[in-house]
Design goal:
Strand content: under 5%
Number of helices: 10
Strand order of the largest sheet: 1-2
Number of strands: 2
Order of helices and strands: HHHHHHEEHHHH
Helix content: over 70%
Structural class: mainly alpha
Largest sheet: 2 strands, antiparallel
Shape: globular
Number of domains: 1
Radius of gyration: 19 Å
Distance between the termini: 42 Å
Length: 269
Amino acid sequence: MKRVITGLLLGFLCILLVIYATAFWFFVIVVSTVSLALLEYYRITASQDKGLLTIGTLLGAIVPIIIYFLGLKVFPGYLIFAVFFIFAYCLFIKKRADDPNPLVSITSHIGIGVLGVIYIAFSLSHLIVLRELEQGSLWILFLVFIIAANDTCAYYIGRGIGRHKLSPLVSPGKTVEGAAGGLMGGVIAAAIFQQFFLIQIALIETLLLAVFIGIVGQFSDLFESLLKRSAGVKDSGNILPGHGGVLDRVDSLIFPIPFLYYYLIIFRI
């Protein structure tokens, strides 16, 4: 029940923010979401390194700020700065007495630090530029509806009739039947959404886009599961009753958001 109530409240809040929030307040929400997701990510991947947690979160939180004010074109330059800063930090890590190979540990920390900036901060920051496109708010809602339907159908169909494990080492609870049911749920949600809000888009294009988003969303969810499995944790946090952390809620959106943005840029604008 906590999961259902939290999900409904989050869905209602998402609709209000996407449709009615001004560009500035939407930007504030994106920065807040990115910051919380980064905190959870670094707690999972670098829980013993408070310095990397702090630096990585700060470097990542700056990404939506520069994209909001300066656009996507400045990110490659900023990324070089972020990589340099993380390298410089790791360069001065003191060797731990119990670490037999400190250089390997340092290179893994560099990878963890840079991955957070790209994987979470840069991907989620595409929400800002996606909303600025023509009918951007509708496209964000379209994406959220597909992912929500995908996740919900995958969860219940997987629990009901799931027999074949999708990726047992990464996420033992996910099944092939659940994944297929999730894709079908996303396609149905996309068809309904198109009939009411995106009637200028051909139905066949909408359905194909829904399948593509659903597949990418499931991979996105599995990637976060891989991070949690490697760290031995069930949830990224506990801020959302019944849902875990912020990263747990946005994991299925991390890759589909930039994919949808570039699809619209290349094929529709």
